[in-house]
Design goal:
Elements lengths: L10 E12 L2 E12 L3 E5 L6 H8 L7 E6 L2 E2 L9 E4 L14 H6 L15 H14 L15 H13 L5 E5 L7 H16 L4 E5 L3 H5 L4 E10 L2 E11 L6 H7 L11 E4 L2 E4 L9
Parallel strand pairs: 3-8, 3-9, 6-7, 7-8
Antiparallel strand pairs: 1-2, 1-4, 4-5, 9-10, 11-12
Helix pairs in contact: 3-4
């Protein structure tokens, strides 16, 4: 496994010897992970590889079987985030069309405490200022008073990112932010994420299956996979490194242990019965 070259910022996420089981299956096994302020990290892997499990463990929503996760120096299970982490789910932009809510009203929801439905801190004027700043960052100030259902998919995604930004989080977590975004809007949305990292000094963790988009945006890739060994299985990090060094499709297949079905196999005869094996069948380190 290759390791990333980290930024010099402060550590904002630290997973140490983290193992998480779900339904009796070890989905994550001895994960050690450091994410620093200003990192733009893409979390990739096949379905069932543990991406969502890792995110939920980081957010303190899943109890680890072993190990710890610290967010901003505190145990993630014990801290109250109060807007320090902005979460943008895959379905966040898919609001029902019968809901009449303006962009500004949606972004304002990001300033509210989920427990009391009152602002995290500050007065009405401060809330207005933070909403205006979020609208400006995501480039929606000109449509602030437009109903959300009238926006394009890319604009709606910007709006929910604005809602997350309104609490002024230090960390932003995205789950498939490009789903439902038209091709024309994809590049501008990726540019927005890059600016959040470089201009706003936010730390970004993005779950995505869109490898071409990841190659053009994220600084670092963490590749997870669930490895089956006889009756057991365990998941872990199989690549953690710079985006430009992430394996191509052929290398990725090798990383997953998938061989080209069109390649000839070399039969090896072992008396008393023939057994067909693949050359180089020993798994790469």
């Amino acid at each position: 496994m290759k390791h990333a070259h980290h930024h010099d910022g402060e550590v904002v996420i630290q997973a140490s010897d983290l193992s998480v089981s779900r339904g009796g299956t070890i989905v994550l096994d001895n994960i050690n992970l450091t994410i620093r302020q200003g990192d733009f990290v893409a979390l990739v892997g096949p379905n069932g590889s543990g991406k969502t499990t890792l995110v939920m463990a980081i957010l303190g929503l899943l109890q680890p079987t072993k190990g710890t996760v610290e967010i901003l120096g505190r145990d993630s299970k014990k801290m109250k985030f109060d807007g320090k982490i902005g979460w943008v789910s895959q379905a966040a932009a898919n609001l029902p069309k019968n809901i009449r809510i303006t962009v500004r009203e949606l972004v304002t929801l990001g300033v509210l405490s989920t427990n009391s439905l009152i602002p995290f801190r500050g007065n009405k004027k401060d809330t207005q200022r933070r909403v205006d700043e979020a609208l400006q960052i995501v480039g929606l100030q000109d449509v602030a008073d437009v109903d959300i259902y009238r926006l394009s998919g890319g604009q709606r995604q910007r709006a929910v990112i604005g809602r997350a930004l309104a609490s002024n989080p230090e960390i932003l977590v995205f789950d498939e932010p490009l789903v439902g975004v038209d091709r024309a809007s994809r590049n501008s949305l990726l540019k927005l994420l890059d600016e959040l990292c470089h201009k706003e000094n936010k730390t970004l963790l993005m779950v995505s299956h869109d490898l071409p988009a990841i190659r053009q945006s994220a600084h670092r890739v963490i590749y997870l996979d669930l490895v089956h060994d006889n009756d057991c299985c365990s998941g872990g990090i199989h690549y953690d490194g710079p985006t430009d060094q992430f394996p191509d499709l052929v290398g990725l297949a090798a990383l997953r242990g998938i061989r080209n079905v069109h390649e000839e196999v070399t039969p090896v005869v072992i008396n008393p019965s023939p057994v067909v094996v693949y050359e180089g069948s020993k798994e790469e380190e």
